[in-house]
Amino acid sequence: MSTASDHTLREHVVREAIHQAGDGFDRVVSVGDGPWDVRAAVATGSQFIGIGGSTAPFGAWFPHTHLYGSFDEIDPAADFSLTPPVGQVAAEPDADKAFAARPASCDCWN
Predict the structure, then answer these.
(1) For residue 68, how many other CB atoms are within 10 A of its CB?
(2) Which of 51, 61, 68, 104 is the 20 to 30 Å CA partner of 76?
(3) How many CB atoms sit inside 10 A of residue 67's CB?
(4) Contact between residue 36 and residue 54 where contact means Cβ atoms under 8 Å apart
């Protein structure tokens, strides 16, 4: 288990959870309700499912096919890969200017 009590940045929480789960998975699918969750998925190379009533919180490019109102609607076998347009979501933890200012990088990223 990895929590925001352990790390400041959402992508670090996801990265730590992936690390703790170990190898042996075909894919990682992140789930969230805000742009910081999309950022974490892109930064960690995870697929992503958005939960909410609108794609607006995730950005104009976010595919409607990745949005659900509840977990009951999700087909776990579906491909939830994200391909944001270049420059929409930076993959480097300290290079993202579209989201909140980055605190100092965390050792967990290395």
Answers:
(1) 15
(2) 61
(3) 18
(4) no
Lowest pLDDT segment from 18-27, 33-42, 62-71, 89-98:
89-98
Structure tokens, 1: 């288990």
* Encoded amino acid at 17, one letter: A
Got the DSSP string for 69-88?
SSGGG--TTS-----PPTTT
Q: Where are the beta strands (DSSP E) in the chain?
A: 29-32, 47-51, 67-68
Against a cut of 0.90, is the pTM above it? Answer: no
Judge whether 10 and 108 are in contact, CB under 8 Å.
no
User: Which tens digits make up the pLDDT trace of 29-66?
Assistant: 999 988 888 888 888 889 999 999 999 988 888 999 99
Query: Could you tell me which residues are beta bridge partners of residue 49?
Result: 31
Neighbour-count burial for 71-82, b at 16+ CB within 10 Å, e otherwise: eeeeeeeeebeb
Report the C-alpha gap between 43 and 91 in whole angstroms: 4
